[in-house]
Write a structure and sequence with these properties.
The protein contains seven helices and six strands. It has about 290 residues and is an alpha+beta fold. Strands 1, 2, 3, 4, 5 and 6 form a six-stranded antiparallel beta sheet that branches.
């Protein structure tokens, strides 16, 4: 038997494999049960006893991208623009019809309240048919004869003194007093604005050019104006202690408003006076002034 013969099983030498069956590093490590598996002490420092376990970072989930959606309309149509062309035409025609009716109505009402003119003379019937009865107006937009004059009401009095003598005061401009009271006053009283003016208008409307009363209201207008004059004279301190108001006289001072500088119109600026007769002051006038 050959000395190199190690058994009956023939040995098949693998090409490239050394013939010396020296165990490799893996074989020696697996054969040594004393060395624990895992990293060596030199590669990772040991944790001290009692230390909390190391926190393992959580894994971050990667969101799955959603499927892309189509971009919305950056300028969506709203209102009438969202309608179809046929409906847009219908809305435009309706708005045009409403605008025409409104303009016609405003024009008819304007002609109804305006002074008589060429249009109303020729088409007054059509204007009345449109306005009456639903849109009837009880006022006038323009005054038929605008006031272009300054009218001031003035008064003077005859006074009997304590010694029995009589004297006549100068003219007191009552309208100017009301004007000064109203000027710069944000809340002027109704009396300051209208009492004297309305009383004079009432007198003129109920008297003729010769100051004679027309109808039954003439005497009422005289009494009303006289009591206002007596009341105002008491406020002017025209009476001294012991003086007696015997009679009063009222007049108006009317002057034309001067035209503007650019106008060629020529008007007289001289005032025109309308003097009334002397009115004796009665006890009723005095008592009314006190009340």
């Amino acid at each position: 038997m050959d000395a190199h013969d190690r058994g009956s099983t023939p040995r098949h030498d693998d090409p490239g494999t050394p013939s010396d069956p020296t165990p490799g590093p893996e074989t020696s490590a697996a054969a040594d049960p004393a060395e624990p598996p895992g990293p060596t002490a030199a590669s990772e420092p040991a944790e001290p006893p009692g230390s909390p376990p190391a926190t393992v970072p959580a894994r971050t989930a990667i969101p799955t991208p959603l499927p892309a959606s189509p971009d919305p309309d950056p300028d969506p149509r709203t209102g009438v623009a969202a309608l179809s062309l046929r409906h847009q035409i219908g809305v435009a025609l309706a708005l045009a019809l409403v605008a025409i009716v409104v303009c016609v109505h405003i024009g008819m009402v304007f002609l109804h309240v305006a002074p008589v003119n060429t249009v109303t003379r020729q088409h007054g019937g059509a204007v009345d048919d449109w306005v009456y009865p639903e849109f009837e107006q009880n006022w006038k937009l323009f005054a038929p004869n605008p006031l272009q004059q300054n009218v001031a009401v003035q008064v003077r009095a005859r006074i009997r003194g304590v010694d029995g003598g009589s004297r006549t005061t100068g003219w007191y401009d009552l309208s100017a007093q009301d004007g000064r009271a109203v000027d710069g006053n944000p809340l002027p009283s109704h009396t300051q604005q209208n009492e004297l003016r309305r009383s004079w208008d009432f007198f003129v409307a109920t008297h003729d050019a010769n100051n004679r009363p027309i109808g039954l209201r003439g005497s009422l207008s005289e009494a009303y104006l006289r009591r206002i004059a007596v009341l105002r004279m008491g406020r002017e301190d025209a009476l001294a202690r012991g003086d007696v108001l015997v009679s009063v006289q009222v007049r108006s001072r009317t002057s034309n408003v001067p035209p503007p500088k650019w106008s060629d119109e020529k008007v007289s600026v001289q005032p025109v006076f309308r003097e009334l007769s002397w009115w004796p002051v009665t006890a009723d006038d005095t008592e009314g002034s006190v009340r």
